[in-house]
Amino acid sequence: LEGRTTIWAVGWRAFQDNAVTGVGGGNFGTASRHYLLEPGAVGRSDQIIQETPAAHNIYLEVGSELGLIGLGLLMSIIVFCIAAAIKAARAFERAGDSRMAIFATACAVGIIGTLAADFFISEQHSKQLWLLLGLCPALLSVARATAGEQRD
Asked: Is the pTM of this model over 0.85?
């Protein structure tokens, strides 16, 4: 735990120093070394110096690398996709397709669960999150097409 709190402290310092634009995409590991000597003790500076660490927090890593702009874009994509899944679930329910409604709801819940786990790991490059996010607008499109077929 001490290593993770050190990485989070250094990541927070990097974010505070570059809040708008960040330190650059993929630069968390190299830029983190520059924030070790800030005021405040860190427990495991060896971990930052010897390794190229990940932030072990998707929000902190994206925020420190891409700033508020990148973090805002990530959060916008997430909110859009969860809203699409919820709308799809409602549309499927209105169309009487309970299986697809459950599937759309499960996608939204899966994203929320993945995002909760991503508070403790840096998985913004993992395929699971992005596949779930991409599935939501596709489900909404299918739900709308299904509703259109029923009207005809």
From this structure: no
